[in-house]
Protein backbone atom coordinates (compact mmCIF):
# COMPACT_ATOMS: atom_id res chain seq x y z
CA UNK A 1 0.00 0.00 0.00
CA UNK A 2 1.06 3.58 -0.73
CA UNK A 3 -0.11 6.30 1.63
CA UNK A 4 0.73 9.92 2.44
CA UNK A 5 0.63 10.94 6.09
CA UNK A 6 0.64 14.59 7.14
CA UNK A 7 2.69 15.14 10.30
CA UNK A 8 1.97 18.15 12.52
CA UNK A 9 4.47 17.93 15.41
CA UNK A 10 3.11 20.99 17.23
CA UNK A 11 4.57 22.28 20.49
CA UNK A 12 6.29 21.08 23.65
CA UNK A 13 6.82 17.32 23.60
CA UNK A 14 4.80 17.09 20.39
CA UNK A 15 7.84 16.85 18.09
CA UNK A 16 9.47 14.23 20.36
CA UNK A 17 6.54 11.81 20.49
CA UNK A 18 5.46 12.40 16.89
CA UNK A 19 8.94 11.52 15.70
CA UNK A 20 8.70 8.19 17.51
CA UNK A 21 5.33 7.41 15.93
CA UNK A 22 6.79 8.11 12.49
CA UNK A 23 9.67 5.79 13.31
CA UNK A 24 7.20 3.03 14.21
CA UNK A 25 5.21 3.56 11.02
CA UNK A 26 8.41 3.40 8.97
CA UNK A 27 9.22 0.07 10.62
CA UNK A 28 5.71 -1.22 9.86
CA UNK A 29 6.06 -0.15 6.24
CA UNK A 30 9.38 -1.95 5.89
CA UNK A 31 8.09 -5.13 7.52
CA UNK A 32 4.86 -5.38 5.54
CA UNK A 33 5.97 -3.94 2.22
CA UNK A 34 4.09 -0.63 2.33
CA UNK A 35 5.25 2.78 1.13
CA UNK A 36 4.44 5.64 3.51
CA UNK A 37 5.33 9.22 2.58
CA UNK A 38 5.46 11.78 5.39
CA UNK A 39 4.90 15.51 4.88
CA UNK A 40 5.39 17.97 7.75
CA UNK A 41 3.53 21.20 8.52
CA UNK A 42 3.03 23.86 11.17
CA UNK A 43 0.21 23.93 13.71
CA UNK A 44 -0.26 25.40 17.18
CA UNK A 45 1.95 27.86 19.01
CA UNK A 46 4.89 27.38 16.69
CA UNK A 47 2.62 28.22 13.76
CA UNK A 48 1.47 31.40 15.51
CA UNK A 49 5.09 32.45 16.05
CA UNK A 50 6.05 31.80 12.42
CA UNK A 51 2.89 32.76 10.53
CA UNK A 52 0.56 34.55 12.94
CA UNK A 53 -2.04 31.79 12.62
CA UNK A 54 -2.47 28.54 14.61
CA UNK A 55 -3.41 26.63 11.45
CA UNK A 56 -1.95 28.25 8.31
CA UNK A 57 -3.60 27.77 4.93
CA UNK A 58 -0.46 26.00 3.73
CA UNK A 59 -0.92 23.36 6.41
CA UNK A 60 -4.55 22.80 5.47
CA UNK A 61 -3.60 22.43 1.81
CA UNK A 62 -0.91 19.91 2.71
CA UNK A 63 -3.34 17.88 4.83
CA UNK A 64 -5.88 17.87 2.00
CA UNK A 65 -3.37 15.91 -0.08
CA UNK A 66 -2.80 13.31 2.65
CA UNK A 67 -4.59 10.10 3.62
CA UNK A 68 -4.41 10.88 7.34
CA UNK A 69 -2.93 13.33 9.86
CA UNK A 70 -0.64 12.68 12.82
CA UNK A 71 -0.78 15.51 15.36
CA UNK A 72 1.55 15.85 18.35
CA UNK A 73 0.19 18.45 20.77
CA UNK A 74 -0.32 22.21 20.78
CA UNK A 75 -0.01 24.98 23.33
CA UNK A 76 2.36 26.24 25.98
CA UNK A 77 2.70 28.96 28.61
CA UNK A 78 3.78 31.62 26.11
CA UNK A 79 0.43 31.24 24.31
CA UNK A 80 -1.77 30.53 27.34
CA UNK A 81 -3.54 33.88 27.70
CA UNK A 82 -7.25 32.96 27.28
CA UNK A 83 -8.06 36.55 26.26
CA UNK A 84 -5.62 36.51 23.33
CA UNK A 85 -7.27 36.88 19.94
CA UNK A 86 -5.13 34.10 18.45
CA UNK A 87 -4.54 30.89 20.45
CA UNK A 88 -3.15 27.43 19.60
CA UNK A 89 -6.40 25.68 20.49
CA UNK A 90 -8.18 27.56 17.71
CA UNK A 91 -6.19 25.44 15.29
CA UNK A 92 -7.70 22.28 16.77
CA UNK A 93 -11.26 23.53 16.32
CA UNK A 94 -10.52 24.75 12.81
CA UNK A 95 -8.94 21.52 11.56
CA UNK A 96 -11.78 19.40 12.99
CA UNK A 97 -14.40 21.61 11.37
CA UNK A 98 -12.57 21.94 8.04
CA UNK A 99 -12.29 18.18 7.55
CA UNK A 100 -15.66 17.33 9.12
CA UNK A 101 -14.09 15.20 11.85
CA UNK A 102 -17.17 14.80 14.00
CA UNK A 103 -16.40 11.57 15.89
CA UNK A 104 -13.54 11.37 18.37
CA UNK A 105 -12.65 7.82 19.46
CA UNK A 106 -10.74 7.55 22.73
CA UNK A 107 -10.03 4.00 23.94
CA UNK A 108 -9.12 3.50 27.60
CA UNK A 109 -7.34 0.21 28.12
CA UNK A 110 -5.96 -1.02 31.41
CA UNK A 111 -2.51 -2.58 31.41
CA UNK A 112 -2.30 -4.93 34.42
CA UNK A 113 1.39 -4.15 34.87
CA UNK A 114 0.50 -0.47 35.38
CA UNK A 115 -2.42 -0.95 37.77
CA UNK A 116 -0.36 0.32 40.68
CA UNK A 117 -0.06 3.73 38.98
CA UNK A 118 -3.82 4.32 39.02
CA UNK A 119 -5.39 5.91 42.12
CA UNK A 120 -8.15 3.26 42.25
CA UNK A 121 -8.01 -0.13 43.95
CA UNK A 122 -6.71 -2.82 41.57
CA UNK A 123 -9.95 -4.82 41.88
CA UNK A 124 -11.90 -1.89 40.39
CA UNK A 125 -9.65 -1.89 37.34
CA UNK A 126 -10.12 -5.54 36.44
CA UNK A 127 -11.74 -5.88 33.03
CA UNK A 128 -11.81 -2.15 32.27
CA UNK A 129 -11.92 -1.59 28.50
CA UNK A 130 -13.82 1.54 27.48
CA UNK A 131 -14.23 3.25 24.12
CA UNK A 132 -15.31 6.89 24.36
CA UNK A 133 -17.05 8.28 21.29
CA UNK A 134 -17.10 12.05 21.64
CA UNK A 135 -19.01 14.33 19.27
CA UNK A 136 -16.37 16.75 18.04
CA UNK A 137 -17.74 19.50 15.78
CA UNK A 138 -20.91 20.65 17.55
CA UNK A 139 -22.12 21.61 21.00
CA UNK A 140 -20.92 24.42 23.19
CA UNK A 141 -17.44 24.61 21.67
CA UNK A 142 -18.90 25.60 18.31
CA UNK A 143 -22.09 27.45 19.30
CA UNK A 144 -22.62 31.19 19.23
CA UNK A 145 -20.61 33.00 21.88
CA UNK A 146 -20.20 36.56 22.96
CA UNK A 147 -18.53 38.52 25.74
CA UNK A 148 -20.38 41.75 26.30
CA UNK A 149 -18.49 45.00 25.91
CA UNK A 150 -18.69 45.84 29.60
CA UNK A 151 -16.92 42.59 30.45
CA UNK A 152 -19.54 41.68 33.07
CA UNK A 153 -21.60 39.21 31.02
CA UNK A 154 -20.84 36.55 28.45
CA UNK A 155 -22.55 33.56 26.88
CA UNK A 156 -21.71 30.34 25.07
CA UNK A 157 -24.40 28.37 23.29
CA UNK A 158 -24.79 24.60 23.36
CA UNK A 159 -26.38 23.86 20.00
CA UNK A 160 -27.07 20.42 18.51
CA UNK A 161 -29.10 19.35 15.53
CA UNK A 162 -30.76 15.98 15.11
CA UNK A 163 -28.46 15.17 12.21
CA UNK A 164 -25.31 15.88 14.23
CA UNK A 165 -26.45 13.55 17.00
CA UNK A 166 -27.60 10.84 14.59
CA UNK A 167 -24.30 10.55 12.77
CA UNK A 168 -22.14 10.25 15.88
CA UNK A 169 -24.65 7.91 17.53
CA UNK A 170 -24.40 5.60 14.52
CA UNK A 171 -20.61 5.52 14.91
CA UNK A 172 -20.99 4.61 18.58
CA UNK A 173 -23.63 1.90 18.05
CA UNK A 174 -21.59 0.29 15.28
CA UNK A 175 -18.57 0.27 17.56
CA UNK A 176 -20.63 -1.35 20.33
CA UNK A 177 -21.76 -4.08 17.94
CA UNK A 178 -18.13 -5.09 17.51
CA UNK A 179 -17.42 -5.03 21.23
CA UNK A 180 -19.56 -6.06 24.23
CA UNK A 181 -22.79 -4.67 22.77
CA UNK A 182 -23.47 -2.03 25.41
CA UNK A 183 -23.67 1.73 24.88
CA UNK A 184 -23.94 4.37 27.60
CA UNK A 185 -25.14 7.76 26.36
CA UNK A 186 -24.18 10.72 28.53
CA UNK A 187 -26.34 13.84 28.75
CA UNK A 188 -27.86 16.44 31.07
CA UNK A 189 -31.41 15.98 29.84
CA UNK A 190 -32.94 16.96 33.16
CA UNK A 191 -31.72 20.54 32.71
CA UNK A 192 -30.59 21.31 29.14
CA UNK A 193 -32.86 21.43 26.10
CA UNK A 194 -29.99 20.49 23.77
CA UNK A 195 -29.44 17.37 25.87
CA UNK A 196 -33.12 16.41 25.70
CA UNK A 197 -32.77 16.46 21.92
CA UNK A 198 -29.61 14.39 22.35
CA UNK A 199 -31.39 11.74 24.44
CA UNK A 200 -34.42 11.52 22.14
CA UNK A 201 -32.26 11.19 19.05
CA UNK A 202 -29.97 8.53 20.55
CA UNK A 203 -33.05 6.54 21.59
CA UNK A 204 -34.42 6.75 18.03
CA UNK A 205 -31.11 5.63 16.49
CA UNK A 206 -31.08 2.72 18.95
CA UNK A 207 -34.10 1.26 17.15
CA UNK A 208 -31.75 0.24 14.33
CA UNK A 209 -29.40 -1.55 16.74
CA UNK A 210 -31.62 -3.83 18.79
CA UNK A 211 -28.66 -6.11 19.56
CA UNK A 212 -27.01 -3.32 21.61
CA UNK A 213 -28.08 -2.49 25.16
CA UNK A 214 -28.60 1.28 25.63
CA UNK A 215 -28.16 3.07 28.95
CA UNK A 216 -28.84 6.79 29.45
CA UNK A 217 -26.79 8.40 32.19
CA UNK A 218 -26.70 11.97 33.46
CA UNK A 219 -23.22 13.45 33.28
CA UNK A 220 -22.95 14.17 36.99
CA UNK A 221 -23.77 10.55 37.81
CA UNK A 222 -21.37 9.38 35.10
CA UNK A 223 -18.44 11.20 36.72
CA UNK A 224 -19.03 9.16 39.87
CA UNK A 225 -19.72 5.80 38.21
CA UNK A 226 -16.62 6.14 36.03
CA UNK A 227 -14.54 5.78 39.21
CA UNK A 228 -16.73 3.39 41.21
CA UNK A 229 -17.76 0.88 38.51
CA UNK A 230 -15.53 1.52 35.47
CA UNK A 231 -15.62 -2.11 34.29
CA UNK A 232 -19.36 -1.79 33.64
CA UNK A 233 -18.80 0.60 30.73
CA UNK A 234 -18.25 -0.56 27.16
CA UNK A 235 -18.88 2.25 24.64
CA UNK A 236 -19.54 5.71 26.09
CA UNK A 237 -21.20 8.26 23.79
CA UNK A 238 -21.08 11.92 24.79
CA UNK A 239 -21.33 15.44 23.42
CA UNK A 240 -18.33 17.64 22.83
CA UNK A 241 -17.79 19.15 26.27
CA UNK A 242 -18.96 16.20 28.39
CA UNK A 243 -16.93 13.78 26.28
CA UNK A 244 -13.85 15.96 26.68
CA UNK A 245 -14.16 16.01 30.46
CA UNK A 246 -15.17 12.39 31.02
CA UNK A 247 -12.48 10.87 28.81
CA UNK A 248 -9.84 12.92 30.62
CA UNK A 249 -11.24 11.72 33.94
CA UNK A 250 -11.06 8.12 32.73
CA UNK A 251 -7.43 8.58 31.76
CA UNK A 252 -6.45 8.13 35.41
CA UNK A 253 -7.67 4.54 35.14
CA UNK A 254 -4.79 3.80 32.77
CA UNK A 255 -2.24 5.29 35.14
CA UNK A 256 -1.08 8.14 32.89
CA UNK A 257 -2.29 10.45 30.14
CA UNK A 258 0.77 9.28 28.24
CA UNK A 259 -0.92 5.93 27.58
CA UNK A 260 -4.06 7.07 25.77
CA UNK A 261 -4.45 7.60 21.99
CA UNK A 262 -7.33 9.03 19.98
CA UNK A 263 -8.75 9.14 16.47
CA UNK A 264 -10.93 11.89 15.01
CA UNK A 265 -12.99 10.64 12.09
CA UNK A 266 -15.51 11.92 9.57
CA UNK A 267 -17.77 10.19 7.06
CA UNK A 268 -14.92 8.58 5.11
CA UNK A 269 -11.60 6.99 6.02
CA UNK A 270 -9.66 10.23 6.42
CA UNK A 271 -8.81 10.95 10.04
CA UNK A 272 -6.64 12.87 12.48
CA UNK A 273 -4.72 10.92 15.11
CA UNK A 274 -3.28 12.38 18.31
CA UNK A 275 -2.58 11.50 21.94
CA UNK A 276 -5.05 12.93 24.41
CA UNK A 277 -2.28 14.49 26.49
CA UNK A 278 -1.11 18.06 26.13
CA UNK A 279 2.21 19.54 25.09
CA UNK A 280 3.80 19.17 28.57
CA UNK A 281 6.27 22.03 28.06
CA UNK A 282 7.77 21.44 31.53
CA UNK A 283 9.43 18.21 30.33
CA UNK A 284 10.04 19.08 26.67
CA UNK A 285 13.51 18.18 25.48
CA UNK A 286 14.39 16.21 28.61
CA UNK A 287 13.79 12.72 27.25
CA UNK A 288 11.00 12.13 29.77
CA UNK A 289 8.03 12.14 27.39
CA UNK A 290 6.02 8.93 27.09
CA UNK A 291 5.48 8.19 23.36
CA UNK A 292 3.01 5.35 23.97
CA UNK A 293 -0.15 7.37 23.31
CA UNK A 294 1.29 8.78 20.08
CA UNK A 295 2.45 5.34 18.92
CA UNK A 296 -0.96 3.85 19.70
CA UNK A 297 -2.54 6.74 17.79
CA UNK A 298 -0.43 5.66 14.82
CA UNK A 299 -1.86 2.16 15.27
CA UNK A 300 -5.36 3.65 15.08
CA UNK A 301 -4.31 5.43 11.88
CA UNK A 302 -3.32 2.09 10.39
CA UNK A 303 -6.68 0.60 11.41
CA UNK A 304 -9.17 3.33 10.54
CA UNK A 305 -7.64 5.37 7.70
CA UNK A 306 -5.52 2.75 5.93
CA UNK A 307 -7.57 -0.37 6.70
CA UNK A 308 -4.48 -2.24 7.92
CA UNK A 309 -5.90 -4.16 10.88
CA UNK A 310 -3.11 -6.74 11.11
CA UNK A 311 -0.47 -4.02 11.14
CA UNK A 312 -2.39 -2.07 13.82
CA UNK A 313 -2.53 -5.15 16.02
CA UNK A 314 1.19 -5.78 15.58
CA UNK A 315 1.95 -2.27 16.87
CA UNK A 316 -0.39 -2.72 19.84
CA UNK A 317 1.15 -6.09 20.64
CA UNK A 318 4.61 -4.56 20.52
CA UNK A 319 3.55 -1.96 23.09
CA UNK A 320 2.06 -4.71 25.26
CA UNK A 321 5.22 -6.78 25.15
CA UNK A 322 7.49 -3.84 25.99
CA UNK A 323 5.35 -2.92 28.99
CA UNK A 324 5.20 -6.54 30.12
CA UNK A 325 9.01 -6.64 29.98
CA UNK A 326 9.09 -3.91 32.61
CA UNK A 327 10.13 -1.02 30.36
CA UNK A 328 8.94 2.29 31.78
CA UNK A 329 9.10 5.98 30.96
CA UNK A 330 9.23 8.56 33.74
CA UNK A 331 5.46 8.98 34.12
CA UNK A 332 4.78 5.25 34.62
CA UNK A 333 7.82 4.35 36.72
CA UNK A 334 7.87 3.81 40.45
CA UNK A 335 8.91 7.01 42.19
CA UNK A 336 12.62 7.03 42.81
CA UNK A 337 13.35 4.16 40.43
CA UNK A 338 15.20 4.28 37.13
CA UNK A 339 13.27 4.81 33.93
CA UNK A 340 13.97 4.72 30.21
CA UNK A 341 14.40 7.78 28.05
CA UNK A 342 11.89 8.54 25.32
CA UNK A 343 14.39 7.37 22.72
CA UNK A 344 15.28 4.07 24.43
CA UNK A 345 11.65 3.22 25.15
CA UNK A 346 10.61 3.87 21.54
CA UNK A 347 13.58 1.86 20.30
CA UNK A 348 12.36 -1.06 22.41
CA UNK A 349 8.97 -0.91 20.71
CA UNK A 350 10.57 -0.80 17.27
CA UNK A 351 12.70 -3.81 18.22
CA UNK A 352 9.55 -5.64 19.32
CA UNK A 353 8.05 -5.00 15.89
CA UNK A 354 10.79 -7.17 14.41
CA UNK A 355 9.80 -10.25 16.41
Mind explaining what this structure looks like?
This protein has 355 residues and is α/β, with parallel strands linked by helices. It has 2 domains: 208 residues, 3-Layer(aba) Sandwich (Isopropylmalate Dehydrogenase); 136 residues, Isopropylmalate Dehydrogenase (3-Layer(aba) Sandwich), CATH 3.40.718.10. Helix content is 39%, strand content 19%. Strands 2-1-3-12-11-4-5-10-8-9 form a 10-stranded mixed beta sheet, sandwiched between helices. Strands 6-7 form a two-stranded antiparallel ribbon. A hairpin with a 6-residue loop joins strand 6 and strand 7. Helix 1 packs parallel to helix 12 and helix 6 crosses helix 7. The two termini are 22 Å apart. The model has no long low-confidence stretch (mean pLDDT 94).
Structure, briefly:
It is built from twelve helices and twelve strands. It is globular.
According to DSSP, the number of beta strands is 12
Helix content: 25-40%
Overall geometric form: globular
State the end-to-end CA separation.
Answer: 22 Å
CATH topology of the largest domain: Isopropylmalate Dehydrogenase
- For CATH, the homologous superfamily of the largest domain is named as Isopropylmalate Dehydrogenase
CATH uppermost class of the largest domain: Alpha Beta
The SSE string, one letter per element, is: EHEHHEHEHEEEHEHEHEHEEHHH
